[in-house]
Specification:
Mean pLDDT: 93
Order of helices and strands: EEHEHHEHEHEHHEHHHEHEHHHHHH
Radius of gyration: 21 Å
Shape: globular
Number of helices: 17
CATH topology of the largest domain: Rossmann fold
Number of strands: 9
Oligomer: single chain
Bound molecules: tryptophan
């Protein structure tokens, strides 16, 4: 594998293999180490799927001292909800169980500006696919607000505060700063990033929760937005914001080790895929770390680190011992690519069967989440 391919990452496009070590250095984010047990118990933290952070100690403190905090994150509702989106959904549920108040922004305005998707289409996809999936993962309507960027609240006082914040943030930023953070930038993208900064900071306004620590879990491609929001927040005297905390998870690889992209169904497994589709996708497309022939595989062994089925098992196999055993056997060549794929197919399909049942009833409960 060459890491030389041109490496680039920003919130609206990224390409090339992601070198996480390099990202940590270049973005100035920190590795997550020595987490308390409550976090270690969570597969995503334990397996370093969530691998880095900014100012996360503030959140660990709040959890330890049973102080209130907010988990704020957002989604761009383009294309189908797929297994790459699971990582964030699971974190929403995790933080809610820890006692956090959950704020979720449906980035319909960003989808319009950055992707040219209509607000109606975004609303439809969010209501029919994304939000039901969060509910199916266990998100509770209590202590949770889901809103659309284009319509923050039916309470005028809250809405006014939210949209005014964007101007306050604009006042404290410069054009050069945008260029430095994003490279190429358009007025639409500029508005989107200021709006996202408002998403992240507004829970601290007096009209919402008042001064409160906020953690923003995101895919690592979103860090530029956090850098900008943090830089601006730091300069504002009134209101004085508590600096944002954030965590970063890996971008789950697409089936062919490409970018998992909602617009390319051969790159992902959707939560609504049928068992036969999952089987076909894994067998036909999932990049294999195995050798060309079974004979060679038995002799030389496979490479689980680049095998896509194995990467997915990190999400779908809850048992650490089993996962380690698979890793070892595959590396030694005792487990063949066919066997690894079959195991993965079975795991994913068992999960999806349960999940799809929950999805059916989730549709009915959506309203409670949007009543704010
Ligand atoms: N830009 C994010 C994405 O592309 C969506 C988003 C909007 C978001 N507002 C946010 C993420 C606030 C985190 C916090 O997925």
């Amino acid at each position: 594998m060459t890491q030389k391919s041109k490496f680039q990452i920003n919130p609206w496009e990224f390409s090339g293999n992601i070198d996480y070590e390099k990202l940590i250095k270049e973005f100035g984010i920190k590795s997550l180490v020595r987490l308390p047990e409550k976090f270690q118990k969570n597969t995503l933290f334990r397996r370093k799927i969530i691998f880095a952070h900014r100012d996360f100690d503030r959140i660990l403190d709040a959890v330890k001292n049973k102080k209130k905090f907010v988990m704020m994150t957002g989604l761009m509702p383009t294309g189908k909800f797929h297994i790459g989106h699971m990582i964030l959904a699971q974190q929403m549920v995790f933080y809610q169980k820890l006692g956090a108040k959950i704020y979720i922004a449906v980035a319909d305005l960003e989808a319009y500006n950055a992707r040219g998707q209509s607000l109606e289409q975004s609303r439809k996809i969010a209501l029919e696919d994304y939000i039901p999936n969060y509910i199916a993962f266990g998100l509770n309507a209590k202590n949770c607000e889901i809103y659309f960027q284009s319509s923050r609240s039916k309470d005028g006082r809250k809405s006014n505060a939210f949209y005014s914040l964007q101007n306050l943030l604009a006042k404290h930023s410069t054009f050069n700063e945008f260029k430095a953070v994003y490279g190429e930038i358009t007025p639409g993208k500029m508005l989107s990033s200021l709006l996202q900064a408002s998403d992240m900071l507004h829970p601290q306004l007096p009209e919402f929760e008042g001064k409160i620590p906020v953690v923003v879990p995101v895919g690592v491609d979103q860090d530029p937005h956090l850098r900008l929001a943090r830089d601006i927040a730091r300069r504002i005297k009134k209101p004085k914001f508590i600096q944002l905390s954030s965590t970063y998870h890996i971008m789950l690889e697409g089936l062919k080790r490409n970018k998992m992209s909602s617009s390319d169904p051969t790159s992902f497994i959707a939560m609504t895929d049928f068992p036969k589709e999952v089987e076909k996708k894994i067998k036909k497309y999932a990049f294999s770390g195995g050798q060309k022939t079974l004979e060679e595989h038995r002799k030389k062994g496979g490479n689980p680190d680049i095998d896509v089925s194995f990467q997915y098992l990190k999400i779908f196999e809850p048992d650490d011992k089993k996962l380690e055993e698979i890793y070892r056997l595959y590396k030694q060549g005792e487990l063949s690519t066919g066997e690894l794929k079959n195991y993965t197919i079975k795991k994913i399909n068992t999960f999806l069967k349960q999940h799809q049942k929950k999805l059916k009833s989730a549709q009915r409960n959506i309203k409670k989440f949007l009543d704010n």
